[in-house]
Structures are given as C-alpha cells and as structure tokens.
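Throughout our pipeline, every protein is held as a single compact record rather than as scattered files. The record that follows is passed on verbatim for readers who wish to inspect the format:
___
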Amino acid sequence: MKKKKAIILFGILDILALIFLFFTYGPISYFRDLWITTSMTTMNHRYLARVLYSEKTIHQVLSENYLKEVEENTDTSQIKLGEILETEHYESIYEEQVLKKEGNDLYKLVPISGNGYKGYMVVVYDPSRISLATAEYLGSNGELLTNMSKRLSFEVGINAGGFADAGGVGSGGIPTGTVIQNGEVVYRGPETGWTGGLIGFTDDNVLMLTKDSPEVAIENGMRDAVEFGPFLIVNGKRAIARGNGGWGISSRTVIAQRQDGIVLFFIIDGRQPGYSIGINMVDLTNLLVRYKAYNAANLDGGASTDLVINQKLINKPCGIGGNGERRIPNAWIVK
C-alpha cells in the first residue's frame, strides 16, 4: 500500500514538473515573458528571472516587451481647476463614478475590478488638499502608512516613491531618487535606473510630470514631488506599449489628474491568486484612459501598494507578515 502511494506521489510530481517545464521553456512565450518582466522590474527579486533564464534570453524578452514614454513635460496650462458641477446625466458609468459625489466634497472611494485584478480608485475633488508626507525618520527607517496616518491625522493616504532598505529587509528607509517637499529638496537618494522622473504637484495644485532637474522643477513651481515612473500619460498622450508593456503583472499604485483638476489615486492589489493577481501596464493605461486621466504616473508598487483612509487600511497589501504592509519613506496624503 505504501509503495503504491509512493508511486502515485512521484507520478504527480513528475506531471507537475513537466507542466512547469512546458510553461517555462515551451513554445508558448506568455509565461516566460510575464515571469521575466515582472521579476526584472522589482528592486530585490531580479534573481527570480536569472534562476530560470540566461542573460541573453532576459535581454531578448525585455527588448520585446517595453513601454515608451511620451517625451514631454506636463503642460500645466491645460489643467483647468474649478467647481465640479453635478448632473443627472453622465456620458458613461465611469464619468458617473468620478463626478457623482456621495455626501463628501473632498473625496470618494470607488471599488474597481477587471480581468484578474481588484482594487480601488480614490477621487479627490480638491487637489489643494494633497501634499507629500515623509516618514518620521526619513533616510534611516521607513514608516507604516497606518502609523503615519495616526501621527499626521490625514484622511486619505497612498504610498508614493520607491526605496531601498537601509536597516535590513523591510526597513524601507532610503528613498530612491529625489524627494521635494514644500518647494525644497529634502532628500537625494540613489537613482532607480528606470524610466520616469519627478512626479508631484505645483504651487497651483496641478500634477506635474517632468524629467527636468529638481532645481528647474522647483523654479517652475514644483511644490512636492517624488522621483519614480514610468509616466503613463502626459498631456493626454499615452505611453506606447509593446508586448505586455515590460513591467509584468503586479500590484500597482498610480496617481493621475484629469483636465478638470480632479485627482485620481489608483490602488490595484496583486500577487494573491484567488483574489487579485495584479495588472500589467497596458491594461493599467487603458483603465486610466477610461477615467479620462490627462496626466498619470506609476508610483512604487508590489508589496508597497497601500491605501489608508481615516487611519484604516483599505486594500490588501501583499507584503509578508501582519496585514501585509511595508514600511515606506513617503506618501501622498489628503488632509
């Protein structure tokens, strides 16, 4: 009897191994491309691609799956901030989700879902209430967004820029790139080496996406900013994607602004089979266009993706331990 069970067990393992080899090295490239692009766009898990594939294969896949950004800075004059007028007739369900307020003139929470993903959109009606918050011990240790919300008493918060762990895995202390707060550079971290640039708000409360230097950006009115990317939509023009967009499927955090000045936070959960796998850059950009984003940029994602409202964690982060939250160096908040 034991021998029979062992034969069955080894038979199952053999079948699973064959399935794994088929998807990894077989004629269908979808799994290979997804695995490589997802792994190679993380800060700490690129080894997952290199364990299975050669550098030549990785380079080939990345050359066939990428996102080409619009080579422009934001034209801030195209954003017309003003009173949001409600109506009984909307051109689409998406416009109704954005424009129809629900007893709150500051923000609205909208659950969203699609093929393989679940998440939230936060509609912020008054961009003047948005600012950048930083961890209490910026540069040495990050801070959980829920703890940050209790310390700073904001109504809505999402994670912002990327980071490197300063004090060991999970410390989240060193921001990547430049951090601008109240018109001053408060931190210059290591470069990410990725696409994107400065993502932030001007003194006139317009979302500015620019590849200019921090000094030039500040001269042009940049109030608060983090450095990350890629830029997904600039001046109404979407980035051009080839293949799956080159960033695989993962949790995502995105900040966007419409021409009417309304700011949209997108939080997409991922890496959780059975609940939400995540979203690729192609589908993400399609989602942004659906809600009329005029300027939009990708923020740090993966296990960093967080949404906190009134000191309560709303989404389901995919980090290890506790409620899945990771310590982060900064956050976009509504206060």
About this structure: The longest strand covers residues 107-114. Residues 2-64 form one domain. The helical segments are 2-25, 30-40, 47-52, 55-64, 93-99, 145-152, 214-219, 281-290. The chain has two domains: 2-64, 68-334.
